[in-house]
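Lab manual, section 2.4: Encoding a predicted structure.

Procedure: take the sequence of the chain (148 residues), apply the prediction step described in section 2.3, and record the output as structure tokens. A sample record is shown.
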Amino acid sequence: MLIGLIIYSFSYAVISSAQSNSQELHNASIAFADEDHSDLSRRIMHAFLPPLFQPPQTVAVRDIVPLMNAGKFTFVVDIPSNFERDVLAGRDPGVQINVDATAMVQAGLGSGDASRSSQPRSASFSRIPMSLRCRRSTLSCASPSTPM
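Recorded output:
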């Protein structure tokens, strides 16, 4: 009996645990509330590529909270109006990344991937150091039980 428990503990239990919890971001749903409709905002939106993310969809700002509470998207990126103009003028506009924290592994991994995906596009767009532009990114969490 003890030998059977040892075999189970060091074989099947380890294998099933390793296969059930993926520690990688894969096929995460993402949407954009693009209030700027500029070349820079389109570049940022197209930086989120498979297999990490599903093709991005556009949503209205007023729909962000209901869609996230319904579990339609894991990430919603809100790009404010005049974003490109502010970047080119040397100001520090913020981009809000809303993350559904009910998908904890995807939320943790994806928020970092989301920041990295947008950096090369906007860094190549101007000569302003990236640290100035990404400094004010915000992270919001949604849960079906607690509205944002």
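Check your result against the sample. The first helix runs from residue 2 to 10.
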